[in-house]
Amino acid sequence: MYVPSAFRVTDGELIRAFAQEHAFATLVSTADDAPCATHLPFLVDGDATSMTLRAHMARANGQWRHLTERESLVIFLGPHAYVSPRWYETRDN
Length: 93
Known about the structure:
Layout: H1 12-21, E1 24-31, E2 34-47, E3 50-55, E4 73-76
Antiparallel strand pairs: 1-2, 1-4, 2-3
């Protein structure tokens, strides 16, 4: 994944703390050369130098069958919330 140097974070403790605070992440992998993604809650074990990510995926989700074949990517996003359309002003044209 391309990360511009101005936004690259290398502090393991900061990364671990962020992942713990924003534990709902996206697991991205490939299966048969096609991308596959699942949103999952993750637990972060270990310390800043040796972290293990743990999650539970439903057996019915076939993505788990391909996780040992190639590297995967887990994307932890920052704070998020749903903004209801009711919050927007209504304009008559």
